[in-house]
Specification:
alpha/beta; 11 strands; disordered N terminus; 11 helices; Malate_DH_AS; 3-stranded antiparallel β-sheet; 2 domains; Rossmann fold; L-2-Hydroxyisocaproate Dehydrogenase, Chain A, domain 2; tricarboxylic acid cycle; EC 1.1.1.37; oxidoreductase; 6-stranded parallel β-sheet; L-malate dehydrogenase (NAD+) activity; about 45% helix; globular
Amino acid sequence: MQLLRSVRLFQFGLRRNFHHGGMKVAVLGASGGIGQPMSLLLKMCPQINHLALYDLVKTIGVGADLSHLSTNTKISAHNGKEQLKDALDGCDVVLIPAGVPRKPGMTRDDLFNTNASIVKELTEAVAKYSPKAMLCIISNPVNSTVPIAAEVLKKYGVYDYRRLFGVTTLDIIRSNTFIAEAKSLDVKSVNCPVIGGHSGVTIIPVLSQCKPSVIFDEEEAKQLTVRIQEAGTEVVKAKEGTGSATLSMAYAGMLFTHSLLDAMCGKSGIIECTFVQSDIIPGIPYFSTPVLLGRNGVERNLGLPAMNNFEKKLLDTALPELKKNIEKGIKFIN
């Protein structure tokens, strides 16, 4: 009963916070470790009237299971490449969590060869069948897979920088959680911008700009930063080879999607940190910063937040690695 009550409260919260819309959202990789829990969370979003699930295998079962939830979101399940067109037809938002997960000892970059090919193939389908959709990339390494998606869309002549996002929301929710724990704050009141990229040293939590204001000495800031940067590895180790941070990533993907849908429905003042095409730093064509979202995606890039000396050093360390990751993605297509 308690669980049922929690689900109802969650749904009520969504109903209260969202304009009703008639959005079609597709999850490509819906049978996977991130895809399944994320689809469950999205099924509870009243703004989505059609949730299309796509994967190579097991999609029909996932769809049947989710279709029994008592929400108004219609589920369609699409199994195998020949059904990808139907999944994408008329989509407003496409999420790509497809790919192989990390195992102990692997970095996000080790996933490159497998996941790069998957993202390339799926983005080609988006370019053909749903070129106007907002495209949200979750498949790692995001620092490389977002440039891959951009290059594919450019080849098809349908690239719009405002409509392509690397979902880095997990770095923000981890930062908020760890800060709240360290300072005994209500996590719902904490908001810390995280800039840069989405792996290792490219993840830059700007602790000095956290709201509410929190004070850490340099040693504390260093330890907290490393924990945020290595949080994914922490989960991979804890799962002892059985998976990666799938549940928290599903939650992060849902939060970003909700913000994007809200903005698309005309709600103003929606700001999210996300990895997008950027001219904020010369020579770094993609970068995560706070972005104002609107009906057409990126309305305005809000640029770099103010940073202290420690954070500026983090940025200096991040840039060569980020540049290398981005170039690797671009080179994969060209």
